[in-house]
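Q: Entry one of two.
A:
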Amino acid sequence: MATRPASETEISQALVSLPGWLVNDAHKLERSFRFTDFMAAFAFMTRIAIEAERMNHHPEWFNVYNRVRIELTTHDADGISQKDFKLANIINKQATLEGAS
């Protein structure tokens, strides 16, 4: 069974509980983080990669030194879905634990 894309209302409601996340021009959830250094950013990405693999839901991300930008979309839903909201929550919790800004 294919994953259903979230409606605009569902996305707006979810963003209320996802501080720092927005919907970008490509219609993907996006958030950027800053860490103390490259090792902290890479360690964060590694921890998120493990969780994403468990979910079989993988982020699109970009890393330069201490910065990580993450985009989330559900390809089989052709848009943002509940899977993205769940992973964004996991990402936010881990970023808070690691002191990201």
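Q: Entry two of two.
A:
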Amino acid sequence: MRKMKFPLLMASFLMLLLGCQKEETPVITEPEAKVEEKVQEATLKITDEVIETLQSNFYNIGDVKVIDFMLPDGTTEERFQVEGDITFSAESIQALPKYKKGASADKNYHTNNLVRPRTLTIIGYTGGRNALSNKEQTALRYAVNNYNRLGLSIRFSLTFGTNYQNKDMVVYYNPNQSGSGGSAGFPSRGNPNKFIQIYGLDNASVDVNEHVITHEIGHSVGFRHTDWFSRQSCGQNTNEGAGSIGANPIPGTPNGYDPTSVMLACFSNNEDGEFNNNDIIALRYLY
């Protein structure tokens, strides 16, 4: 879960601030859809194989847990959670590359966790207890604009409604989660992470909501926390153990701490919701 400054978490990435004015994305309302009942998966187990797979892919294995992950329709499914706001289904764990102990994984993080270039459909959920508020819907529009204005090889087509099953991504509110922040996963097989939760941001500004949603979309298209090697934004000093910084930095971006990146693990209540220059460099390098 990406939380506010008392630890909150989140992965590596970026952007410039083109203009101070927020752009508006046209709102398209999707027809109401009948929700399919979700069948509960078998209980997940944190096995040695799961730990080894996560560790070899440069994830922090210090706090791996199994959680009940709420879906937009209110049902839950079990998922692995690492680094506070990153979740993996059993299928997505199996899809991670398997490295031998001691093997170098330089640059594999980027090449194995990217989205196939195309227009991605993203929906803001508006049904029942998991509906985004008006403020959160505005923040989602701003977050989508953050990406679309860069002219990347991925682009987002935004709608609002409840018919999320056929969409690439769905952003929704989780009323049951404690703290403040968001939760997402990483791409798999060329597709983005589908489910993005936000929670506890009711009293935060539109800009802070925009920041969290932009950050979680960043995870969903393949970015780690920019301070994953130290989690300095959370007031910590925790290296995740993969050499001096754990992975090759994106060319043109800092090797060390970048205090204004959207992809820092933790956030404050005065975020502006925009990418910094390094975020933009990273996005344009990968997409």
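A: Comment on entry two: The helical segments are 48-56, 90-95, 108-112, 134-148, 206-220, 277-286. The beta strands are 2-3, 65-70, 76-82, 86-88, 119-125, 155-161, 169-173, 181-183, 195-199.
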